[in-house]
């Protein structure tokens, strides 16, 4: 009952309306593949899943929660900055596990002029980080946080089509691979990054896990412009350096570019050179700008 009362008060604060018709404007994009996302109907509460969430998923949710310089951002410029995004409130909305209400919450923000770009980077990504913090501090249970992350995955899929329809800055003729590094799994952060890259025009091969033999065959057998690798922890940095060398060695494209991101590199730029990468991106818009610059230089522009 308290949850329902809080939900009603939240909607009243936003707009005073709770209209089912607003949900009909958004449908999940059939082209957005996030099948590796947490399935709300098949939550596995085993110890193995608990370890995966703790060691890999929650740390890497921080990937997209970083500052974006307004002057350089690819976000639409008509965002209503007067609307304050309350991350803690939205995290509680997600933890109520009511997908319909969570969609209303986002839709009402959009009605007030907030862009999807800001919803993804300024609300959903930090809310995911907030869920992880609540679990690590024992304020919320493992099950609550796990299912909440699954609900965020569903929201991302629902709004992906509308997001990709917005202008995101052109990157011409870029074929790339996006993957986590060794011993890590594809997570919410990489799903969002994939959306940004596709919106910008990249042809992205999204990998759910790092498999060197399969990736080596891909870069050897076809032209790949860029590989993006995300590392959530620093325990396998030496292995990453070796993997990058192997990929460059077999690549059909002698000028293969490799960029890295994730918590393992944030605040430690020296690691970018250590692993042999060509660049680092702290968040999704920065990754788009970095790749755009690489492609323009490769084309002599």
Q: What do you see in this structure?
A:
The chain is α/β, with parallel strands linked by helices and 301 residues long. It folds into 2 domains: 2-165, no CATH class; 175-298, Cobalamin-binding domain (Rossmann fold, 3-Layer(aba) Sandwich). The chain contains 11 helices and 5 strands; from the N terminus they run H-H-H-H-H-H-E-H-E-H-E-H-E-H-E-H. It has a 5-stranded parallel beta sheet, with helices on one face. Strand 4, helix 10 and strand 5 form a beta-alpha-beta unit. Helix 1 (2-14) packs parallel to helix 4 and helix 3 crosses helix 5 (116-136). The radius of gyration is 19 Å and the shape is globular. The N and C termini lie far apart (60 Å). 41% of the residues are buried. The model is unreliable at 1-5, 29-33 and 35-76 (pLDDT under 50).
What is the mean predicted local confidence, pLDDT? 78
**How are strands sequenced across the largest beta sheet?**
2-1-3-4-5
Give the % helix: 40-55%
Proportion of β residues? 5-15%
Overall strand count: 5
Unreliably modeled segments: 1-5, 29-33, 35-76
Shape: globular
Sheet of most strands: 5 strands, parallel
Overall structural domain count: 2
How many H/I helical runs?
A: 11
The structural class is alpha/beta
Terminal residue distance:
60 Å
């Amino acid at each position: 009952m308290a949850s329902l009362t809080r939900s009603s008060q939240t909607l009243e604060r936003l707009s005073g309306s709770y209209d089912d018709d607003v949900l009909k404007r958004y449908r999940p994009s059939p082209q957005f593949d996030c099948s590796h996302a947490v399935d709300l109907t098949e939550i596995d509460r085993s110890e193995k899943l608990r370890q995966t969430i703790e060691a890999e998923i929650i740390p890497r949710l921080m990937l997209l929660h970083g500052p974006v310089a307004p002057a350089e951002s690819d976000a639409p410029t008509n965002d209503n900055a007067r609307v304050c995004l309350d991350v803690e409130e939205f995290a509680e909305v997600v933890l109520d596990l009511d997908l319909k209400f969570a969609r209303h919450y986002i839709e009402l923000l959009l009605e007030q002029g907030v862009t999807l770009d800001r919803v993804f980077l300024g609300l959903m990504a930090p809310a995911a980080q907030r869920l992880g913090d609540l679990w690590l501090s024992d304020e919320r249970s493992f099950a609550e946080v796990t299912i909440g992350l699954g609900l965020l995955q569903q929201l991302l899929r629902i709004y992906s089509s509308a997001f990709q329809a917005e202008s995101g800055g052109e990157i011409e003729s870029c074929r790339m691979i996006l993957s986590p590094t060794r011993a890590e799994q594809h997570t919410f952060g990489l799903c969002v990054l994939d959306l940004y890259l596709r919106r910008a025009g990249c042809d992205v091969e999204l990998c759910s896990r790092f498999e060197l033999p399969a990736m080596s065959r891909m870069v050897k057998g076809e032209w790949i412009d860029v590989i993006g690798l995300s590392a959530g922890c620093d325990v396998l940095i030496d292995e990453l350096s070796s993997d990058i060398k192997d990929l460059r060695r077999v690549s059909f494209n002698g000028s293969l570019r490799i960029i890295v991101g994730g918590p393992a590199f944030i605040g430690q730029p020296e690691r970018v050179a250590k692993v042999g990468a060509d660049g680092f991106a702290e968040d999704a818009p920065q990754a788009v700008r970095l790749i755009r610059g690489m492609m323009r230089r490769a084309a002599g522009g």
